[in-house]
């Protein structure tokens, strides 16, 4: 009698009974159907929908994140209560585990205000998003970092 090979496809031998013909043909079709079901499960893409990400303590604004498969999309903006600093990183937000990157990365983000010399060095690492301004923002109250990022999740 035949058997399934390592790929779950039925392999016949000389002792297989071929009557009735439908049962004989379905042996092969059933194993192929099982193999296709396994393949489909490997390609299932999950979508979290847009999740709200609360700003860190002392920050204002709103963020959202969405994971589709292994790709994460962030959108939103945030500003500190007082000012951005150029010498230290400011904690912008903490990420839910489903939105955490596969590796930390650095990027540049723009401001929501129309000031040409202001930008932000953004670091997304593990569960945190931090930012440091290109200049002190005491003269630009309400200057916020606009985060529109895409990256691979862990």
Give the arrangement of secondary structure elements.
Layout: E1 3-4, E2 10-11, H1 21-42, E3 51-53, E4 59-68, E5 71-80, E6 90-94, E7 105-111, E8 119-125, E9 128-133, E10 145-152
Antiparallel strand pairs: 1-2, 3-4, 4-5, 5-10, 6-9, 7-8, 7-10, 8-9
Q: What are its keywords?
A:
single chain, 154 residues, mainly beta, Immunoglobulin-like, 2 domains, eight-stranded antiparallel β-sheet, two-stranded antiparallel sheet, 1 helix, 10 strands, rod-shaped
Q: How many β strands by DSSP?
A: 10
Inertia-based shape: rod-shaped
Percentage beta strand: 35-45%
Distance between the ends: 46 Å
Neighbour order of strands in the largest sheet: 3-4-5-10-7-8-9-6
Q: Return residue spans where pLDDT drops below 50 for at least 5 consecutive residues.
A: none
Overall pLDDT score? 80
Q: What oligomeric assembly is this protein in?
A: single chain
Describe the structure.
The protein is mainly β. It folds into two domains: 3-42, no CATH class; 51-152, Phage bIL170 RBP, head domain (Immunoglobulin-like). The protein is built from one helix and ten strands. The strands form two sheets. Strands 3-4-5-10-7-8-9-6 form an eight-stranded antiparallel β-sheet, with no helix packed on it. A hairpin with a 2-residue loop joins strand 4 (59-68) and strand 5. It is rod-shaped, with a radius of gyration of 27 Å. It starts with a strand and ends with a strand. The model has no long low-confidence stretch (mean pLDDT 80).
